[in-house]
Amino acid sequence: MKKILKYITGFSLYIFLSFNFFAQNYPSIFGIENTKWDFPWCNLDQSSITEQFTELDTIIDGVEYKKVGTLNSGGISYDLNVIGSNGYAREDLVEGKVWFKGAVETMSGLDTAEYLIMDLSLNVGDTFIVYQSFGFETITTVDSVYYEFGLKHVRTTHQFWWSEVPLTFIEGLGTNYGISYMHDNYNMCLCLISIKKDSDEVYSNTDCFLPIVGLNDNDSESEFSFFPNPASSHITIRKNTIENDASYVIYSLLGERIKSETIDSKEHQVDVTDLSKGTYILVLGDQSFKLFITE
Questions:
Q1: Tens of pLDDT, residues 96-109
Q2: Which burial class, exposed, middle or buried, applies to 216 when counting CB atoms under 10 A from its CB (0-12, 13-18, 19+)?
Q3: Quick one: fold of 224-293?
């Protein structure tokens, strides 16, 4: 597993600990004037760096939220007519919880939904809902609670797509996947590059970078190839180079891990009769391919 290199600077302005009866108050994940998050966005042959920004407060149904938009050449966009990074965020500093409300795709079109994206009150063994979409839920478990740089970390077992870095809640910062990860279902590069509070960088992950995006062609020059594609009953994965230790993973376009297995021969057959018709991502080693399933 790659070691995450992150540093936290200029954070003394934001850290404070106080006790109200038996409850611990956590520092806000937001800056005093503004907050900026940078993270990569990629899917298939598209890639970019997304810059999220908040500096405005708003009231929704009597509750105070931060308006979160994205920076572009024209300024800040708060448009909620697309699935992605724009929305509204609120927090509970007593329990260390953060919610994000943004656009989601439903059977009847786009709607807005609010998800709990961070909960520092969880203990080892507690569960947390990572995704809710079309009635489907992804549930993860807390595997450790620890302190780093004096900040409480609650680490879960959830790893997004083929990331080696588990979803972690960080006191005063948010999550290492960003603030809108539940609404970025189509982002295959979910990690957080940096956080700036009032222009001071308080978090940086040097292992989170914009990859060279573009799924590999399924040809004999690749380390792996497979056939047929589209497929209806099975696919055969072929090792085009000598590789003793290899495996495959099939993901849905929403990031759900469908199945995985060790590739134990030069040509390895995979049963896909249990997959519904549609497009999937087949990951072979450090390569990724589009897999089409037909009826």
A1: 999 999 988 777 88
A2: middle
A3: Immunoglobulin-like (2.60.40)
